[in-house]
Amino acid sequence: MATIAVRRLVDPTEDEIQRATAVLHAAFLDLNDSFGQSLTGGNPELDIEFHTVALRAGAVGGEIWVAGFGPTDICAVAVWFGPGTDYLATEEQRAAGWNALQNKFTPELQKWWSDYFIPRYNAWNASCLGAGTKLGSWYLHLLGTRPEDQRKGLSAALIQVIEFRAQAEGATMCLDTTNDPNVAFYRARGFTVRGTISIVGSGGETTMTCLSNIVVRRLVTPTEDEIQQAAAVLHAAFLQLNDGFGHSLTGGNPELDLKLHLACLRAGAVGGEIWVAGFGPTEIRAVAVWFGPGTDYQATEEQRAAGWNALQTKFPPELRKWWSDYVRFIDDAFLSNSLKLYYKFIPRCRVWRESCLGEGTKLRSWHLQMLATKPEDQRKGLSIALIQAVELRAQADGAMICVDTTNDSNVAFYRARGFTVRGTVDLVGSGGKTIMTCLSKSTNC
After folding, report:
1. Domain map of the chain by residue range?
2. pLDDT-wise least confident of 241-255, 273-287, 332-346
3. pTM (2 d.p.)
4. By three-state DSSP, how is residue 186 classified?
C-alpha cells in the first residue's frame, strides 16, 4: 500500500484552495446528499462556493489538513476547528467568504438559515454534547475524499492527525454528518452517536447525526470531587445490576454500598490506577480501577488505611467473619510478608483465582478490579475504551490482563473483547449463591 502523506495547509495558496474545493465538491456530489440542496436552496451554482467558503474560514480561524500519496497531492481534505473557536465564529472568518455568499441567497433561503437551521442546530448540538462542549472540542466541520481515492485510508489519516493532539490536550473531538455510511465510518473509528435531529429544507427531510469520540484519562492524583463522582458512577452501575453478590459484600446494608466503592477508589489512587472516560475533558461517565504487575487490591497497609480499615469497623461481626475466614487460606509460601497479610485478609476468591490463573500469575498481570459505566451511557464504547487504555500498556509489558465478574452479561462482554474464561466458583453470602467467573486475556498475540 502506498504511503499516505498528511500535511496542514498553514497559509494555503489560491491554487491549493481551489484544488481542495474540487475534492470536497466531488466527494459530496458523489454522496447525492439532499442536505446540500437544502443548504443552497437547490441552487447548484452555490455548491462549489459553499466549500470554498468553508476552506477560507478554516484558513483564518481553523486548520485545513490534506492527504495524498505524494508531497503535494490533495486527494482528501479536512477542515478542523480547535478548542476555543468554531466555524464562522468570528467576523474575520465570515469576511473571508461567507458574507459574500449570503448575498446570493434568496430571501427564503436567508430566512431558512437565520430563523430555522442555525437556531435549531445550535440548540440540538448543545443538547447532544452539553452546553459549551463543542466550543471546547476539536470540531470536524468538513471531511471529504475524491471518489476514486476512497477506502484507501486517507480520511482516517486526517482524523488521526488531530486525534493525537486531542488526546494530548485531553480534548474531545466531535462532528455532524447526514449520511448513514459516514455514521458507520466514524463509529468504526471510535466515535459515538450522541443524538440525531430531523432537518427539513428545500432538499426534503434529512437526519443529521452528532458524534463525538471518547476522552480517556487517568486520575493520577484525584481530587475529592473526582473520587465522589467516580464512586457515584460505580454505585449507579452496580445498583442497576441488582446483583446478589453486592448484597453479600455489605451484609445487605445499603448504607455500605457507596462506602465500598469509595474504599476501592481510594485504594486505586494510592496503589493502582484510576481511569475514567467521558465525552468531554472533565466528564466521568465510566470508571475503571486497575492494579498493575507487582501489586493487588488492598495489598498494602497504605491502601487499606485509605478507606478499607475504616469500612471494616462498620461491618457486623458475622460480615467481618465472612470476609476474613470464609474458607481456608492459600499456600502463601511464595508471597511477600505484606501480601501474606493481604491474602489472609480476603481468602476464598484468592485461593480460587490462583487455581484458575496459576500460582502468582495475577501478581504478574494487570488486574481489572472495577469497571462500570453510568446506566444511561452504557453501550457507547466507554468501558471498551477503559480496557484498551491499559491493554496497550500490557502489550508493551508483555503482561496478561485479568478480571473477575459475577454477571453473565459481563462475561459475554469480556469474551467479545478477547478474554477467555479460566474458571468459576460459587460464593455464598447473605445475598445467596453467586457464581464468580475469572477471565484473562493474553496481550502477546
Report:
1. 5-213, 216-441
2. 332-346
3. 0.77
4. helix
